[in-house]
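Below sits our specimen:

——
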Amino acid sequence: MPTELERVGVVGAGHMGLGIATALALGGVTATATDTAPEVLASVPIRLGANLERAVRSGVWGERAAAAARDRVVMCRTLEEAVAGAGLVLESIPEDLPAKQVLFARLEGLCPRATILATNTSSLTLVGVGARMARRERLIGCHFLNPADAMPLVEVVQGPETDPEIVDAVMDLWRQVGKVPIRVRFDQPGFVANRLIQALTREAIALVESGVASVEDVDIVAQVALGPRLAATGILLQQDLGSLDLLLTVAAALYPHLQNGAEPLPLLRELVERREVGLQAGRGFYDWAGRDPATVREELAARLLNVLRGLGGRARPGPYAARDLASGREER
């Protein structure tokens, strides 16, 4: 790993930011993290400990590796302290465009010209985030899925002015800490993962809204049919395993009947209007009454780690299976 990327500043130590810091630390990188909320900073030791204990319980990491990782997460009270000496500074603050613009303008002034500046935005464009920067060639996107310490994927997003050598260096960093980076070749809303997730979610909501299937049954299909098959082959390789002429026939017959509206579906709007917005509110598509949100999220993260371990663990994550199958190489 290049020496200059052995220290990464993480701005924002909430659920996502701390997950990113945990992943970096487990991969051997020092993560200097900060947050504007004192209570968030104060809670870091407990939350970091929970992340690491979960990783050990799942068998993905050993106790020695977890103990070393704990020492690599350094909490900083100021932004200046967090970015000092960092070869990469990664922002993980709320999705507020003006706030991100102000932050990156400030980071540009604080960091040496060689420091790479990255945003974890999931919905904003790099053009918008970097609008107040003078040197946008060092701005890149690094989008994680929650929980960031468990989920292997990192979408590395190249903006219109991003230096390609910076993209290569950041891709190498994430590989070396055990993540699976993909290169998003140009800046578009939703990148890759969220576009796929939203397309599937829109159809799932439409099936429930129209009465075709219950919430529970739609999720069962995703868990026991789509999930295992997609984990083994991906989307497009699966079509090659069948036949593209069959895909064309099915697509011509089915596409006209799929949900393709440009606006959120009425069922979703109704749930939000009733403030039934999910786990934190006690009700969403499911009834969460009486469940502690922190406990539920911890259970989900543990389940994800167990699934990922079954797919090959941190060293050989599931996506490699499709690549090896297509090339004739089998993992040993």
Residues 3-184 form a domain with the Rossmann fold fold (CATH 3.40.50.720). The longest helix spans residues 38-57. The chain has two domains: 3-184, 195-327.
